[in-house]
UniProtKB/TrEMBL annotation:
GO molecular function: methyltransferase activity
Keyword Translocase among UniProt keywords: no
Protein name as catalogued: Methyltransferase domain protein
Pfam families: Methyltransf_23
UniProt keyword annotations, A-Z: Methyltransferase, Transferase
Native organism taxonomy: Bacteria, Pseudomonadati, Pseudomonadota, Candidatius Mariprofundia, Mariprofundales
InterPro entries documented for this protein: SAM-dependent_MTases_sf
Alphabetized Gene3D superfamilies for the sequence: Vaccinia Virus protein VP39
């Protein structure tokens, strides 16, 4: 057990246990488990300048420095946006405006606009900006979250695979709270650390500063003035998917005693052998390989017809 001088972003505790010494590429990366609440994070936690530096250099290489998103990437993003819309559609019937933080290519913003909502967003990375603006015609601005004045502007904020990248999720969610109209909502998706999605050696990634379980994500949102409306994911799902309502900011202590033990047990449960031998994994893998070529061929047609429709309806 090691004591660090860092404070847990969720519970404020300062007692951590190292649960991993390397990332999924076998590079040195210390990951700590907060013994107070079960939140899992890099130790030390990189500050915002370090995170920005990472995105300016290494993260680009992970995505091969693409400037034009591939057709497969666009098709997947568009279909994923449809999945999200269908999932939360009946819960957001009163919503008129949607704002996405970390909009990526811009497919989700455009999809929601396509459904008749007023949709916009921000994306700090500028690599795909040209495509976002001149092909998708999506209203996505190239700025950071903290560049936005914390004044209410939207009925719903979307945060899709973004919360795990913040230097302080608590600071980010409190800022997001300020962007949402009274009675508005907040939808978040991120990887589920305690789901059986990866073996321990493939689990940790520099870009994912925080690793949430459903309990720690819900508690983090509650600390920042949100209450859970609905969870769309189960404990064993690869991702956590939760919809919250904005409520008043309340200063209540985090009540997650025993959660660190639960999280540690789940991290250690799936070793390499048992994970890869699970029947669900094998059939999933087989489906993945056989559908790859089909998807590649479909994507070109899908994206060309999507872009020509968007061009016509400008
Ligand atoms: Zn904690």
């Amino acid at each position: 057990m090691t004591n660090h001088s860092v404070q847990c972003d969720l519970c404020g505790g300062d007692k951590f246990e190292i649960v991993s010494r390397s990332d999924r590429h076998k590079q040195a990366l210390d990951t700590g488990l907060c013994l107070g609440c079960g939140l899992v994070m890099h130790l030390p936690v990189p500050n915002e300048a370090e995170v920005a530096e990472y995105y300016a250099t290494r993260y680009r290489q992970d995505y091969h420095g693409e400037r034009q998103p591939s057709e497969r990437r666009v098709m997947r993003a568009w279909k994923n946006a449809g999945r999200i819309y269908n999932q939360i559609g009946s819960s957001i019937s009163a919503v008129e405006t949607v704002f996405e933080i970390g909009a990526g290519i811009g497919c989700t913003v455009k999809y929601f606009e396509d459904q008749g909502l007023k949709a916009s967003g921000i994306e700090p990375n500028h690599d795909f900006n040209a495509f976002t603006h001149s092909k998708l015609f999506a209203d996505v601005e190239n700025v950071n979250l903290y560049d936005l004045e914390p004044t209410p502007r939207t009925d719903l904020v979307l945060l899709i695979h973004v919360i795990e990248h913040f230097s302080s999720p608590k600071k980010a969610l409190k800022h997001i709270h300020g962007l949402i109209n009274d009675g508005g909502m907040f939808y978040v998706e991120c990887p589920n650390l305690t789901g059986p999605f990866a073996t321990q050696s493939r689990m940790f990634h520099y870009a994912h500063i925080y690793n949430f379980s459903p309990e720690t994500l819900k508690s983090m949102a509650e600390q920042c003035g949100f209450e859970l409306i609905e969870s769309f994911s189960g404990d064993d799902d690869a991702d956590i998917q939760m919809l919250f309502r904005k409520v008043g900011m309340q200063d209540q202590p985090v009540q997650l005693s025993g959660n660190a033990d639960r999280v540690r047990a789940r991290i250690n449960k799936y070793n390499a052998l048992s994970y890869h031998a699970r029947p669900a994994y094998l059939s999933k893998r087989a489906r993945k390989v056989s559908s790859y070529l089909m998807e590649y061929m479909k994507a070109r047609e899908f994206v060309s017809s999507l872009l020509s429709r968007l061009e016509k309806q400008r």
